[in-house]
Write a structure and sequence with these properties.
Layout lengths: L5 E4 L2 E7 L6 E6 L1 H6 L20 H11 L8 H14 L4 H8 L4 H19 L9
Antiparallel strand pairs: 1-2, 2-3
Helix pairs in contact: 3-4, 3-5, 4-5
Length: 134
């Protein structure tokens, strides 16, 4: 991702990109914190993350990040996408929006993540037990 793919309109930053599978041009709003993590503005053609010159390199960096965090479990890029989707749904983002954020062309593809959230809701329903004296 090059810096020129980030646009700022007023208080809102967004990332413009071409979707790999569909080849469609998309945009993703990004938070002020995410924008800050992109670093200081440099030349527009420069990569935001210089150590990730190609999407296939994410696995190399991902392995280092996971190890540095002390995580011994094998984590893949797909795990990050799954966690992102599950957290979004758990925090109230509607499934259609999550589907668009993941680049899914069909919301049915996103429903697998909603099932994880449904399981958490079922567990939560049984989490509180009151001692009621009749």
């Amino acid at each position: 991702m090059q810096l020129k793919e980030i646009q700022i309109d007023g208080d809102q930053a967004r990332l413009n990109f071409a979707q790999q599978k569909t080849k469609g041009v998309e945009y993703m709003p990004i938070s002020p914190q995410a924008l800050e993590l992109c670093g200081e503005p440099r030349k527009p053609e420069q990569l935001v993350f210089e150590d990730l010159p190609d999407p296939s390199w994410i696995s190399n960096s991902l392995k280092k990040w996971v190890e540095a965090a002390g995580i011994t479990q094998k984590i893949t890029f797909h795990c990050f996408r799954h966690t992102f989707a599950t957290l979004q749904l758990s925090n109230g983002t509607d499934i259609y929006t999550v589907s668009k954020m993941l680049g899914h062309t069909n919301v049915k593809t996103t429903q697998i993540y909603a099932k994880v959230v449904d399981g958490k809701k079922e567990k939560a329903a049984h989490a509180i037990k009151l001692n009621i004296n009749k």
